[in-house]
Design a protein that fits this description.
alpha/beta, 530 residues, 33% helix, single chain, Methyltransferase, Cobalt-precorrin-4 Transmethylase, Domain 2, 20 strands, five-stranded mixed β-sheet, Rossmann fold
Amino acid sequence: MGKIGESSFDRENLSPLLHHRKRMGSIGVMNPYVYLIGAGPGDPELLTLRGAAALAQADVVLYDGLSNPSLLSHAPQAEHICVGKHGHSRIWKQTEIIDEMLRHARDGKVVARLKGGDPAVFARTAEEVDALIEANIPFEIIPGITAALAAASYAGIPITHRKYASAVALVTGHEEPGKAESAIDWNVLARFPGTLVIYMGVTTAPVWTEALIAGGMDRATPVALVRRCSLPDQRAIHCRLDEVVDRLTPASRFRPPVIAIIGKVSELAEPIEQLRKQLPLAGQTIAVTRPRHQADSMAALIRARGGTPIIAPAIEISPVDDPSVLDAAIDRLDDTDWLIFCSHNGIPPFFERLRSRSIDIRKLAHCKIAAVGRKTAESLAKFGLFADLIPHRFSSEGLLGSLQENLSSLDGQRFLIFRASRGSDELPIRLTRCGADVHEVAAYQNVDVDQPDGQFETLLGEGGIDWITVTSGATANNLHRLYGPILHRARLAALSPKTAKVLTDLGYQVAATADPYTIDSLLDAIEKTP
């Protein structure tokens, strides 16, 4: 491929690169390739779907300090290289980052360059693009949510307003060192008829505030200073323009990253913030330790109640190693009276084995079906089956009680229980004592997460987590193994008394327990705890 052009953002010069990418087909089909990805403002859920797909194809991820490390979970197969974070590691020079990026790309690898915010906004992407063009390496720029827009939204500020601001200017408060003169005309910006947003302006606050006032901006102009927007420890300070310097010093009190939003619109945050504060979990940071594929739904419930979820799975769900175990259970269906599904996790594997063996669902016609929990029953319904029995209390005791209420005797009844690879044996033991013929099947595995989650561990150690939700005994045990004593820095909420007992036996105090044993009830219990 010949040289494509000189200007990194010139549409005509870049079009051959874009056409080259289209010829590649789906993401990551051809090496080498470089993705310049906007990581968004901080919350890992604000990454774009396109960005997540690109990370999944990467061999190497070069990420900066403003990129949430949780995003690396989208690239478990890749080598992860941090190019610097303030206060934690050496900040790489831009030339070093470019050299590292080119080195991996020339080795034929797919490289993801993960940048906080949007790659096109104060991220020095132009220099990286120029280097890629010079090296004849194809690339793609994937936009991200820039901090200015996120800070406004998360602080409840309408960055534009029909009455007060029909324009927005994004301004850097930290220009390239060594410039002969500033490229910013602060006198013009002082008269700008809209909202000013200052990036990277903490250490230079005396310069730009004085310049704006000298240029004619009213000293009393409202300013919102938003730190670490979209993250659990986000803070906002509302003040006048002439108070900014005092509010930003000393640096240890309000350190970067900070976005300054200047203009009348910043005053409008208060009513929006007040509405948010009225939600029951407002200001609460709640850790979700369920398996990742179940965490999103719980995180959404936390957000709807005004809380901030942190997803840090302690266990994961995986298929059983040997599907012949499920096959053997299916072969017993003709001699089974009751199918019991203890969790919705066991339902898809069961029906997948039916499908793979071309077994018609009518083979279940003679079986009664019990589902432990509403979610389990809903999962069954997706496959066209409706549970005959759902206990009022979602536990082995509750199920046994419901069975005894609906059957004159359990003696001789044949049960097939689909469950996790580990968990309580209480249900089969108690059924057996009642004379039932019981066979258990491990339909899926609970697997311990091997390594602690870095973001969660840091927040927990700093006292930034209010609650840790624990939904099973296996989760409790692995949280203890992963994090140990620092779990005492947050309050623990258990999904059931059994889970609470496991935590208590491990030496932890349980502050809230769900009743009934559902996620909604768990969050209700947290809300009711003073």
